[in-house]
Design goal:
Elements: E1 2-6, H1 10-14, H2 16-28, E2 32-34, H3 51-67, E3 72-74, H4 77-92, H5 94-104, E4 117-119, H6 120-128, H7 130-136, E5 145-148, H8 158-161, H9 171-177, E6 182-183, H10 202-218, E7 223-226, H11 229-246, E8 254-256, H12 257-264
Parallel strand pairs: 1-2, 1-3, 3-4, 5-6, 5-7, 7-8
Helix pairs in contact: 2-12, 3-4, 3-5, 6-7, 6-9, 10-11
Length: 289
């Protein structure tokens, strides 16, 4: 099993421990990764300013992966959304595809529409499966309650993303429970984390994050679990900022899913970047049996 790993822009700059932990878990599971150093931005920041340019950015990445005959796996939900939507649009709209390919031809590249774009969680759930992941655990969690945060871009638009049921998803919950932890029910599970508003309306962004964190805590969660760098930044770095600015009393640490899974698989905590989280998550190790 081999994929072209698309890291994107945010992970190397803000959430390096997501890449570190994902690579450690995937290596242990025997998933081979190819690093295409020519990859550029997925185009997400430009989608509402210049749609065609955003599609061109995505198409260039897809063409680079196609040249190596590999499907693309992302860690970021925004990159997943951008690349998968572009892949869908370019397959459907021949005139746009031809125009994009005229630009790509300047680098001797061509988008052909022969690959698939997937996300880390989809690979773990569909290609490996919760049952096999459970067999790989060496120290399952006990009495640990997790609030799963799905993120927006993986679920919508559902007909294009094909990630899970957009109103009643179970994929992430099943992956969490493969580690022995319990995935709790909580009413704001599918609400936005607020990250897209940070830098535009910081107060509203923090309001959305605070509301979710309070709901998760009140619903019995010990930790919130994410699989997106933007969501992790919001629930880790921004939560730390909110704790000092707003005197929050519903502290709910955020852990990345490959960190959670890696601990259950017995991978060394340093290889999972456990000390790179802004809010201390080492207490989660006390739940390991």
């Amino acid at each position: 099993m081999k994929f072209a790993l698309f890291i994107g822009c945010t992970i190397p700059r803000r959430v390096q421990h997501y890449e570190v932990s994902a690579r450690a878990v995937l290596e242990t599971l025997g998933v081979e990764l190819a690093d295409i150093h020519e990859f550029n931005c997925c185009g997400y920041p430009m989608k509402n300013l210049d749609f065609e340019t955003s599609v061109l950015f995505s198409a260039r990445n897809l063409a680079l992966a196609e040249r190596q005959g590999l499907n693309v796996m992302t860690l970021c939900k925004c990159c997943f959304g951008s690349l998968r939507k572009a892949n869908h649009i370019l397959k459907e709209e021949g005139a746009l595809r031809d125009e994009i390919n005229r630009y790509l031809a300047q680098e001797n590249l061509e988008y052909k529409g022969t690959l698939d774009v997937t996300h880390l969680l989809s690979v773990l759930h569909r290609e490996i499966g919760p049952a096999e992941l459970k067999e790989k655990t060496t120290r399952a969690f006990k009495d640990l309650k997790i609030a799963t945060h799905y993120g927006c871009h993986a679920l919508r638009p559902s007909d294009i993303m094909g990630f899970d049921d957009p109103t009643a998803p179970v994929l992430f919950d099943q992956l969490v429970e493969a580690t022995g932890a319990k995935s709790i029910d909580w009413s704001l599970k599918l609400e936005c984390c607020g990250a897209p508003l940070m830098g535009i309306n910081d107060e509203l962004s923090m309001d959305l994050a605070e509301k979710k964190l309070r709901n998760g805590k009140d619903s019995g969660a010990d930790f919130i679990c994410v699989a997106c760098p933007w969501c992790q930044t919001q629930f880790d770095s921004v939560q730390e900022m909110m704790a000092s600015q707003r005197a929050m009393n519903h502290h709910l640490p955020s852990i990345l899913y490959p960190q959670l899974l890696g601990l259950a698989m017995g991978i060394d905590r340093e290889k999972l970047g456990m000390d790179m989280n802004r809010i201390d998550v080492t207490g989660i190790e006390a739940f390991l049996s």
